[in-house]
Amino acid sequence: MIKSNKLIDFCERLPEQSCIFTARIGTSQNLNIIFKAILIPVWEDVTGKNFVEDYKPHPKDTLETFAYMDINDLAEECMQTCEDEGFGTEHDTVRFHVFTVDLRPIKSKVLKKELFETVDKQSDTVQALTNGLLRMSEEIRRTMREVTNNNKEHLQTIAMLSNSNVEKNRHVLDLERENMARELIMELYDKENDENTQDQSKSLMDKILGLVQQQINSSHVDVDTMVKETIKNDPEKVKEYMQDDEVVEAVKKAMMEKMQQEQEAKND
């Protein structure tokens, strides 16, 4: 932070024509460029052009050029880049250069930082191993977080697809049951022979019951509940059932038994 403040102080004292900035890192004898930036307001004032529309990097540029509106932001980003590249740990020198729009040099500043050194090489090795283990541990935690998040997403997708398949199968069974019921109604009214109609209606009723049983087995629906709901909510279906003599006889028998039981209960 101290070095960053020094660089900001240096930038604030630069002349108005300061436009292009570079930073080199390494040792005093060997410096490599790692940062290049342009101050947009100065570039537009000098050239009279729009930076976004008209700026073109130099054909020989091999490093990406960053653009900033504020010189303090530029200085902060420059120092952050230098630290990321090893300033103070691997390199002890940063040289900051300032140019005009046409690349005429204006000023430069050198920043120094002593590298951390230990006398005992074994201690250096232990420290390096410790740092490596810490970085590896952080990478493992990051990887595990990503794997956990991916697994959660996969489980949610599987659950959604499973629910969708259950609903789809249930819907198909409902449609098949309704189609069989319509087929029963059509054949009951279309056939002229009463005996054939009765036999065909029985066969179709057996098919409907088979489909209902399949739906019960797949979705665990209670048969009694299904029959009650049909009787209460589908009067037309009740009329169809009452056309079957066996059904009518069974209903009558059940009602007579109930009335007899109620009478006996009153007499007691």
Indicate the overall shape: elongated
Q: How many separate helices?
A: 9
Q: Helical proportion? A: 55-70%
Number of strands: 5
Counted up, domains total 2
Structure classification: alpha+beta
> Beta-strand level of the residues, as a percent range?
5-15%
Distance between the termini: 101 Å
Largest sheet: 5 strands, mixed
Could you characterize what this model shows?
With 268 residues, this protein is an alpha+beta fold. The chain has two domains: 2-112, no CATH class; 169-263, no CATH class. The protein is 65% helix and 13% strand. It has nine helices and five strands; from the N terminus they run H-E-E-H-H-E-H-E-E-H-H-H-H-H. It has a five-stranded mixed beta sheet with strand order 3-2-1-4-5. Strand 1 (20-26) and strand 2 (31-39) form a beta hairpin. Helix 5 runs antiparallel to helix 6. The longest helix has 70 residues, at 121-190. The radius of gyration is 43 Å and the shape is elongated. The model has no long low-confidence stretch (mean pLDDT 77).
Topology:
Blueprint: H1 2-12, E1 20-26, E2 31-39, H2 40-47, H3 51-54, E3 66-68, H4 71-84, E4 93-99, E5 105-112, H5 121-190, H6 194-219, H7 223-233, H8 235-242, H9 245-267
Keywords:
alpha+beta; 268 residues; 65% helix
Quick recap:
By secondary structure, this protein is an alpha+beta fold. It has helices at 2-12, 40-47, 51-54, 71-84, 121-190, 194-219, 223-233, 235-242, 245-267; strands spanning 20-26, 31-39, 66-68, 93-99, 105-112.
